[in-house]
Amino acid sequence: MLNMKKSDLPGLKHLFILFFLCASVGTVAAQQPGEKQIRGTVSDEDGIPLAGVNILVKGTAHGTQTDFDGNYSIEVPSQGAVLTFSYIGFKTEEIAIKEQSSINITLSASEQSLDEVVVIGYGRQKRETVTGAVSQVESEEISKAPVANVSEALVGKLAGVSARQSDGRPGNTTSFQIRNFGTPLYVIDGVPQGADQYNNLNPGDIESVSVLKDAAASIYGVRASNGVVLVTTKSGKYNQKSTIKINSYYGWQSLTRFYKPALAGDYVRAMAEADINQNGTSNWTREEVAKWQEGTEPGYQGFDWSSYIRKGVPQRFIQGSVTGGSEKIHYYFSASNINQEAVFEGYNFNRTNLQSNISANIGKRIKAGIRINGKIEKNRTPGVPGTDDYMQALRSQTKNRPTETPYANNNPEYLNTTSSLPTNNAMFAVAGYARDIQRTVQTNFDLEYDVPVEGLKLKGIYSYFYNNLLYDVFEKSYDTYTYNRETDTYVKTGGRSNRYRSKENRHIQKNIFRAMADYNRTFNGHHIAGILGVEAEEIETKNFFVRSIPSTNVIELINDVSEVQETTNSLDEQARQGYFFRVNYDYENKYLLEVAGRYDAAWKFAPGKRWGFFPSVSAGWRMSEEPFMKNTGVLSDLKIRASYGEMGDDNIGIGPYAYLPGYNYGAGNAVLDGEVITGIAPRGMPISTLSWIRSRITNVGIDFSMFDNKLDGSLEGFYRKRTGLPGSRNDVILPVEVNIDLPPENLGADANIGMEFSLNYRNSIGKVSYTIGGNATLSRKRNLYTYNPQFGSSWDHYRNSSEDRWAGVQWGKHVIGRFKSEEEISGYPVNIDGQNNTTLMPGDFIYEDVNGDGVINGMDDRPTGYGEGQQPYLMYGLNGGLKYKNFDFSFTFAGGSMQSRGRGSVAKVALLNNQNSPDYLLNDRWHREDIFDPDSPWVSGTYPALRRTNREAIDMGSDFWFLNITYLRLRNVQLGYNLPESILSLLNIEQLRFYINGFNLFSVDNMKGTGMDPEIMDPGGHDYPPNRVVNAGFNLTF
Q: What is the pLDDT of residue 15?
């Protein structure tokens, strides 16, 4: 039984109402009079029966599939019906029903990949004529991964796209980049939006996601430097029977990987061992250590904080949708709700999405539409001090010593005074709360007029976006206690006395206007298409914040002026404007040319530097259409293409009106005659010479398909050069009395260089159809130019120069061995610790003395790996699927290489501040056979011997602690079963599919010994790792 909370019901009750209404409609719709039955067999050109062929009555959602032997049976209207037969890798066929009652059909190999229509900037285009680097994934692929946000569903599926789930907390997003360029521009149903709006779409409402990776993005101008992601939500079709769908799943979540803290016996032994290693003695006796290791005597029983804190938790999802259309109108309505718990008590994410898309023909030449996307999102965490409540919960597994319990004497009425109160998870229940609620709506109104000039249309769109964030925090006071065994009493010995209360209310409104002309015509083999348009955008952001110190835990309102400590109120206004065009030409789908550009303006720059022009050009040659390439029997299509484009980037770290001189109000304060006077200070020199970062992208690609389009792929090479990176002149010295810095200018340059490929194969063996595909992307940044770099010596230049070097290189020392005995240490000629090796122990590192000066220091640093906190430079994915009868199976692997991570904090320093440590640091270490006997022999381990201080020699940055990571993760695997037609007809439904799904089930990598997930970023391992999820669900259509 689902453990539903009352807070879950508002987002779900409407979905259940919709479900029952839909069921009633579906029952009526299934009982249409005047039908007859059609039977038959579907086979390929070799006469082999095809299982799983989709058969639909055209204009409706009524359909079926062929069985194992290629047979089918379907009820159709007795007059005017048309059947469509579709199957992956084969051409779709349509058969008009007349008097026949039996139809056997042969499907031929498809050119589906060529006929596919892809979404591009402000339009659509057949894939065969696309000359830019564009990747697209359809709703069918997206829906294979039951996830909370779209980016997670795309991981491993698209070449040129890197997606990394560095934080798995409920509702959090996946880091998404195109070719490692940075954060892309997101365009939802033709309207530019932010990453938050994109990631909070319901994946089930998405028809396709298209990614513009090269010059194809230049039509979006100043914000397109890092590529563009185009999202199209689902719509109905004209003359389509109403279709009702219910999709729901229930899943169970757990952390993929997190280090295991040491148990109490190991912790106490390690504390004693560290004392003895360093000082020869310890306050922990042999007898005490033995009691803790035994763990049975009262007062010596340890506590497993990891098991107490982390639990498997559920996630729930349900969606209902209605789609259909008549001759004049088509529609799509959807409502969904997702609820995710965290593995810690008191954490929750809940989101409800609403989607409504309607389009209608108004007369013969006018089409109008409205698209509404709404969202209500709620996050709840405890009122834990600090900026990151999740990190506090994660750190508590080591911050809390295993010799302590959450409650004094295990009595839940009394919180225990532990060594780390903010991370005692038992305190979270009384510590207060932090809640945020976001309400968002995006509404697009579009109008299209078919001009009485052949091929010409006029289009207009107005979009209104509104977002409201309410953030409410109450950190309460509480008491903690210590139990006195002798008197059997609880003594108040700690707690929190200071309270914190804050509220924030933010409103964002965005208006976007666009008007454009669209021309498309073909004559005598020549095809010309073009668009010309203008777009304007204005954004207003209002924010109010208040903070107080409440006098009580009971009253939640901030209504006592004397308690208020801070209030801020801000208003921010922005505006953009641009003019854009694109012209496409092709001759007989053979010779292809595209020219596009945008003249863009942004609000950040001085009036004389606001406008920029960003052009692009691309061309292609479909060699396969030449007579000498025809009828080869192997090659189905071959296209060579190249592109060049210029794009801008105004995300350069300056605010509005930075080009104006002035003062900052509120810059400090002073007390004069007992009165607080607010201070003002000059804001610095005006930034009047700074403008766009300009990106120039060159791309060369080859697209091919072979063996009747069963095999297809692409290969790309790209080079992006950015000029105008912000920097300051260091050869102009201002007097110190000025007390300001020179303003930044467009001075620097860098480049991204890389390649990508994808390869896909589809076929069938007997009655089993299958697909398999892979992709990989290599992209790395190179620093080209920095203004007048200054170096103090040749070593300084070698170590710190970035000129014409790869970016993201980690330097450190090279470990060439380990000391095996104290005698070896005393006789070693190189001074490692700066104290003639007097602090070293057996098992400590021997570093390479690179310059041979007999001392280990910074002069011995050399490149050891890649930069931290970045996407892997090499990303790859493997996808596959198969169908057999009514069963379907799919999987996605995704991974990365050429990335690095150091280790710090508790993942490196054992017994840091006397807190607990990962199990491996305290157990798999160099140690004496008998820790209490200084003369006993040393036993080797992976990690250095334990100690309290004098860690400098083992903590140096080196290739021991710095790991170059490679991983391959089973991101998604799914097994589904469609009920056969014989059962569906009895239930009066069109389709019912059940499935089980696994997400992040396992990872093959070189990080397992650290207990850290390969995708997290924090070197201490405190990021919330990705979740391992197992779902069970169903798809119902009627």
A: 43
